[in-house]
Design goal:
Oligomer: single chain
Radius of gyration: 27 Å
Strand content: 35-45%
Shape: globular
Order of helices and strands: HHHEEEHEEEEEEEEEHEEEHEEHEEE
CATH class of the largest domain: Mainly Beta
Number of helices: 7
CATH superfamily of the largest domain: Trypsin-like serine proteases
CATH architecture of the largest domain: Beta Barrel
Number of domains: 3
Length: 354
């Protein structure tokens, strides 16, 4: 008799424990921080997604062939296709992307989040920062207003903040990944001008040119590169790099206004040292040489900005117009000097005077 009651009570308890209504109530408890966080992230993505586009390109590239009878070399044209991401920054259809996504493209197509496809034309590009601007082409009688992304102050972004990468890696349209800002001001030796935001939000081939957004849905960077981790590492390993939004928008504005970008350059190589940065090389016929900078000088200030690393010098110069004198404070043989150097436009690598 007792065994029968015990079995009945056990069955009732099991039924209560696994009742669907009870399970539903447990997963929708008010004040659930994880659910609130997830809903906020979904809202952020929904807000930013209409500004994110897929960029598809076609280019003609050539490979060398050899005549088997006479040994003559000739070029064989091949049509290649590529894909990356981009982000709309104006109602008129200006799209910011990575330069390497559209470089040498003969045809550009821009696919919006809602599936519409437009022809794109290259406004201009900047190989120094790996940024480019594409304009969406519309019919003259077509009144279209595109959805520009909001952008934030990338200088104010803090290490540890949550960020979201949106793009189309491996042709997977509108892919969203999340991580944190791992570090700022990274220089990895890939570009002439680098000031990368490092993130562990997964970034893969195809993400290039897409936005990195903060927890409010504001663009704080343009996804640019990943660290592969060597030959034995496959795909993303949690180290990605994005061009800061402040830099990207300055480049974009210059491309809109003039179709080109000019980077101030004085012609030195630098290494960090106590008290500033040491000048390791002064290029011949450079603004630095004309202004009196010498190898071994320790730069401690540019104007009134303290200098602790080479990136500080590049940032300070980037704020200046070319042909405008910059006051540089140096320590030379224990003597403090103030020199005035007028930056010029940064030349291409193969044009640098040695």
């Amino acid at each position: 008799m007792m065994n029968g009651w015990r079995q009945t009570l056990l069955a009732a308890a099991c039924a209560l424990a696994f009742h669907p209504a009870q399970a539903e109530m447990d997963t929708s408890l008010p004040g659930n921080p994880l659910r609130a966080f997830g809903e906020h992230i979904a809202d952020v993505v929904e807000h930013a997604m209409p500004s994110v586009v897929v960029i598809q390109t076609e280019a003609i590239r050539y490979r060398l062939g050899r005549d088997v009878f006479f040994g003559h070399l000739y070029r064989i044209p091949e049509q290649t296709a590529g894909q990356g991401s981009g982000v709309i920054i104006s109602e008129q259809g200006h799209v910011l992307t990575s330069y390497h996504v559209v470089a040498r493209a003969q045809q550009i197509e821009v696919m919006l989040d809602d599936g519409r496809v437009y022809e794109g034309e290259l406004v201009g590009g900047d190989s120094h920062t790996d940024l480019a601007l594409v304009r969406i082409k519309t019919d003259e009688d077509e009144d279209v207003r595109f959805s520009p992304i909001e952008y934030g102050d990338s200088d104010a972004v803090r290490v540890g903040e949550v960020v979201i990468a949106i793009g189309s890696p491996y042709s997977l349209h509108s892919t969203v990944t999340m991580g944190i800002v791992s570090q700022k001001g990274r220089v990895i030796g890939m570009l002439p001008y680098e000031d990368f935001i490092q993130t562990q939000a997964p970034i893969n081939p195809g993400n290039s040119g897409g936005p990195l957004v903060d927890a409010d849905g504001r663009m704080v960077g343009i996804n640019a590169a990943i660290h592969q981790g060597g030959a034995r590492a496959a795909g993303n390993i949690g180290i990605g790099f994005a061009v800061p939004a402040n830099l990207a928008m300055r480049v974009a504005q210059s491309l809109i206004e003039t179709g080109s970008v000019t980077h101030p350059w004085i012609g030195i190589l630098m290494e960090p040292t106590p008290g500033g940065v040491r000048v390791e090389q002064v290029f011949r016929n450079s603004p630095a040489e004309a202004g009196g900078l010498k190898r071994g000088d320790v730069i401690s200030r540019v104007h009134d900005r303290p200098i602790a690393e080479p990136l500080d010098v590049r940032r300070a110069l980037f704020q200046q117009a070319t042909d405008t004198a910059v006051r540089i404070t140096v320590l030379r043989n224990d003597e403090r000097k103030e020199l005035y150097v007028s930056p010029e436009a940064m030349p291409e690598f193969d044009e640098l005077p040695r």
